[in-house]
């Protein structure tokens, strides 16, 4: 049975967490395979290698082997999280092992910087490519591999195909090759170089390898069928001449394998059982099978052979997830870098404050299906709130501050110097997190929007003559405001109502309809607050022929100076809080310092998307 016969509906995003088990047709495939004892005598020599290498090794203790195979040419994004969680998650669930393999066969675009960042992010998401050593039980067996370490084998495989008359060197120009490939309606035309003898081709291939021919002058192609209805089977290119320094192999090679040739070989050398990839590779599967089958028949690759299965990509609304487009955003400085908190890269999302738990929960809720899915950003935010609600400490912060002056402060407390201690639980349901302490003084910071001189109907906050409660403090009555020459409010004036402190018997004596948050002028900490919104104004900014750059949201970042309560003095970079009434914030992992705090807004308390 091939994966393409599986019909599973597109995974519906679920808002209520794990109430419904997401459908995942890949599980069905693995369970069927395991039930049928799909690979009874599968040997694994403990490291990647050819048929002889594995034949000499023991039976594979892993029931299945999967891999996450990123190309180290950029930073991972939310779409990759799907592939990571599927591959590592399925291996974990079925007694298998997942390899982290850098698909670094393309010399031009790959860098160590990306290798390091990818490793960091896979680990951040909570996965490990190390497994316990059978002998010691400690986490010491690494399953981290580099495809470039297989270049020797790949070249050997290429020579083998040539000797079997299954590959040839083609000297047509790129344009001739394109024209002769035909299209969906027209079969291709055989290259005039297709009928060369294996011996001639071998000589040519060796010359290519030895640097005797300029870049682009010739390629090695598989000899399959130029009339195949599947264009990928019309003699696909296997090797090209390219003088470029590779981050791992340096200048050792001037020919490099194509991805479609390299990838199946990588899987087979690592004894991957289930090679999961995204749907766009479906048409490559016949070549994948052709290649590993021929190389196994020739005794080069170990049997049983890997199989490819395709699943639908994960797309998130209001972002783009293509490395090329993300790179453009960075290089053209639309964002501050790969880790800009608005970027859907994992480094960006981490900096924004998304937790690995929330990303995993969102990805898992989408299961796996045979169609590409679009997930609303608000679904991810739902998982984030569900995660942070139960663990983020609370705090008060004022985002758009205006001063509130308590005119009768000295009368009530005997002196302007008096500080009236107030407290609140760090978390309403986690008493073990303790209490937050802050205090009331004669001047407080409140939100500018909490005062209106002439309020509309239904406004219950401060306006002359109205009473509200200062959260965790006293009831106050508004008496007016001070203004500057332009008529702007520079301070709100109010009077404390004595004996109404929260938590005291008098607290309920005066009924109010509004409660406002505040921070003391004397003990509030000035903080930079970075208020983020979605990066694009359109849900699918890169759909159709549109230029995604036309839909960048000019209001996606707003930086304001606010004040936060004194309990945040010890906030550590990456620490997350719920700022009461405002939403979830995180101390910026790059810029936050105790003497100059910086908090990023992660998301609001409720889903306000599109409202
Ligand atoms: P991009 O198209 O963004 O450049 P890529 O597919 O070229 O991504 P790779 O490094 O080749 O990036 O991807 C590693 C793995 O992640 C591949 O198996 C790929 O299929 C998978 N992957 C990439 N994007 C998504 C996505 N949106 N949803 C699910 N899997 C994805
Ligand atoms: Mg790719």
TrEMBL record:
Instruction: Note the SUPFAM superfamilies from the entry.
Output: Nucleotidylyl transferase, Ribosomal protein L25-like
Entry-linked Pfam families: tRNA-synt_1c (PF00749), tRNA-synt_1c_C (PF03950), tRNA-synt_1c_C2 (PF20974)
| InterPro entries registered for this protein in UniProt | aa-tRNA-synth_I_CS, Gln-tRNA-synth, Gln/Glu-tRNA_Ligase, Gln_tRNA_ligase_bac, Glu/Gln-tRNA-synth, Glu/Gln-tRNA-synth_Ib_cat-dom, Glu/Gln-tRNA-synth_Ib_codon-bd, Glu_tRNA_lig_a-bdl
Query: What class does this enzyme belong to in the EC scheme?
Result: ligase
Note the Gene3D superfamilies from the entry.
Glutamyl-trna Synthetase, Domain 2, Glutamyl-tRNA Synthetase, Domain 3, HUPs, Ribosomal Protein L25, Chain P
Q: Name one GO cellular component term.
A: cytosol
Listed binding positions for ATP are: 71-73, 77-83, 278, 313-314
Q: Where is this motif: 'HIGH' region?
A: 70-80
The UniProt record lists the EC number as 6.1.1.18
Which first-to-last residue range defines the signal peptide?
none
UniProt binding sites for L-glutamine: 103, 259
Keywords associated with the record: Aminoacyl-tRNA synthetase, ATP-binding, Cytoplasm, Ligase, Nucleotide-binding, Protein biosynthesis
Q: Do you know which NCBIfam families this protein is assigned to?
A: glnS, PRK14703.1
Q: State the similarity comment.
A: Belongs to the class-I aminoacyl-tRNA synthetase family.
This protein's name: Glutamine--tRNA ligase
